[in-house]
Every structure is written in C-alpha cells, then in structure tokens.
Amino acid sequence: MGISVNGIDIDDADIAQELPHHDGAGNPLKQAVHELVLRRLLQDEADRLGVQGGSIDDRIEALFAQEVRVPPADDAACRTFYAQRPQLFSSGALVEARHILFQVTPEAPLELLRTTAQAVLDALKLAPERFGELAAQYSNCPSGALGGNLGQLSPGQSVPEFDALLFRLEEGALAGHLLETRFGYHIVQVLRRVEGQAIAYEAVQAQIADRLSRAAWQRAVHQYLHLLVGRAEIAGIELEGASVEGTASPLVQ
Prior knowledge:
Blueprint: E1 3-5, E2 8-10, H1 12-18, H2 28-49, H3 56-67, H4 75-84, E3 90-91, E4 94-103, H5 110-126, H6 131-138, E5 149-153, H7 160-166, E6 179-181, E7 184-194, E8 197-198, H8 201-231, E9 234-235, H9 241-246
Antiparallel strand pairs: 1-2, 1-9, 3-8, 4-5, 4-7, 6-7
C-alpha cells in the first residue's frame, strides 16, 4: 500500500524530489517522507481555514502565525536561564577537549553501536591513558587520527548538548556517561580549561529572550503538528506523536 494523507497520495516521484534536501539526516528517506506528510497536513489545514498566500511555504508560514502563538519570555525566565548556564555567558572561556565518536548511520545497528561505545568508555575508566589508542581505533571523526583531540573550543562552537557538557566538566575529567547528539554517541574528556570573564546579564538579556521564545515556539509547533496528525487520515506510514516531536523538519526550524 502506498502513502496517502487525507486521501491524497504521496508517490515515489514526490519522495525522490524531496530526498536531496535531507542528505545530512540520520535516515534521509524517513525524514523526507515525514516532511512530505507534514507539509501535506499543513497545506490541507491552510485550505480548511482559508489561509491565503503565494507559495505553499508562504501559506504554511501564515498558518503558523495565525494558529501558533506563544508569549514572550519574561525577565524571570531569562534570569534563571542566565544563572543556570554561566559557561554560555562568559568572554574568553576556552576548553581543550578530545572525543571518540561512534557515528549513527542507517547501516549501523543502534543498540550494537551503543553497547560498543559503552564498552570503550568502561575500558577508559579503568585505563584513561588508552584514550588516544582507542580514539584511533574506534572514532568515526577525523580527529581520531589525532587521538581524538578537537583542539581549543569556545562556547557555541559545537552543538548545544556537546557544548553544555564540555563547559561543565572539570579540567582532566572524563565524562562518566556517553553523550548522545545527532551525530551519534561521544566519549568526551576535557584536557584543559581557561575560565572566561562573566558577561553582564543586561548585555545578553535580549539574546536569551530570543532563544527562549524560539524554543517555546518550536514546542508549540510540535504540539500543533501532533494535533493535526492525530485527526488526519494517514495511510502507509506510522507517524505518531513521538515521531513528529523528534523530527528535525525544516518546517519547524
């Protein structure tokens, strides 16, 4: 059976046209199909509500503006975010770090990958001097040839979850658990830290408010998509709420 949304088919030609936009995804085919399904749902909803516009993307943007609204981040929320993440709001902070990356690919069984990564981490806890050797053997990052060394990093240079761990670890510390990012599983060690000077809250308040508002808007969009999925007639693919909330769809960037 093919894939259809509210009685409208999504055929192989549609998928083939969408697929190149998702080359960087862990599962490009799945991501392309999800994107097409969500786009179809949103187009149908725009039709139902009489939302006008030029292109499909313009109409979807207008639909979001009409149906998805979030209050701006207040000062208390911004101050809490600032206080809880001092490493993000300092000038001149640096860490020298190394990692071992176990990259997630469609061909790699996820459970086996995680089990292997955990076994390597357990080995390093017993013999941390083997980090360079094991990085060269296991890491799917070019840094593996350098013993996993990433050089000096400042806040914001890596993905948020990697960044947060880097600037939380003490100098010389090996993270006691695997870090999962969109790239895969990482074993992380901070070799050296250079503490920065704190930036005043007033200088970054607008930046924090924008970040919190964007995050709130994305959560609201995911909830809205979940609602649309729940009341639509979708055949040929499982698109549960968890799948919608986990998507990296350009529709909700």
